[in-house]
Amino acid sequence: MGPLEKVAKSLLGDNFNIANMVAESSLVFINADEHLDYPQPTSHKFVYIGGLGQAQPKPLETKYEEIMNSSKKGVILVSFGSVAQSYKMPDLMKKKFLETFAHFPEITFLWKYEKDEDNIAHGYDNVITGNWLPQTDLLAHPKMLAFISHGGANSVMEASYAGVPLLCIPLMGDQYRNAQMAEYRKIATVVQKPEILEGKLTEAIKKIVDDDRIGLTSSPKANPQVSIQSSSIGANQTPDLIPSPDPNF
User: Per the record, where are the segments of Polar residues compositional bias (predicted)?
Assistant: First the structure.
């Protein structure tokens, strides 16, 4: 018995069978974007809802607008989500990130770093930190060059909708698959965590900034309405797909 089945039985009783439940379901909601995911067999029961809750980008606050517009070549956003916090990185890894950023003086690196008191960017003129950043709004800005991310599902979708290429550093769980999927779609390059200390980060940033093939499928800036409308259509049609006890049309 797998861990998922154990949890299900503890909540729903010993007679609950996941395999039977899936087979007998009228619908299966999939939190993914069918345009980003790998090609795979599908069914009329599958409804892709990835991006359904995607917020529309808003105009940036003045301080962020000034950061974006003052950068010579553009901005790279650095964020690893809400679980993997940058301030908990080993010091050697933080140093490697900063040394890498210093190789690109004409690019501004906007880094979600959760402890302002660390003053981590002191001495690095092209690095700006913040314990919270308006990710969706920043990604929509025309001067956003790339997004260094953990490869979380929402981050991959947000970047793809905005037409921003990704540099994925997967850390756990589905992030490895998400990163590989984005690379397969040619909207990302992937660096594994141990490779950061090997100097691969500098090489990857050069690749993603200079190689027009990375992100080509999502540039120029994509219209998120395309995927969101696709998800909305599926969600809105679900009542029509559920078997009705009424025999009439």
Answer: 216-239
Q: Show the domain range for 39.
A: 3-53+225-241
- Work out the angle at residue 157's Cα, subtended by the Cα atoms of residues 47 and 58, and round it to the nearest 5 degrees: 115
pTM above 0.85, yes or no: no
Locate tokens 């660096």: which residue?
191
Contact between residue 100 and residue 127 where contact means Cβ atoms under 8 Å apart: no
Q: Is the residue at 7 inside a domain? A: yes
Q: Is residue 249 situated within a structural domain?
A: no
Q: Other C-beta atoms within 10 Å of 219: how many?
A: 14
Q: Tell me whether residue 246 is in a domain.
A: no
Burial class (CB in 10 A: 0-12, 13-18, 19+), 73: middle
Q: Report residue 46: phi and psi, to 5°.
A: -85, 125
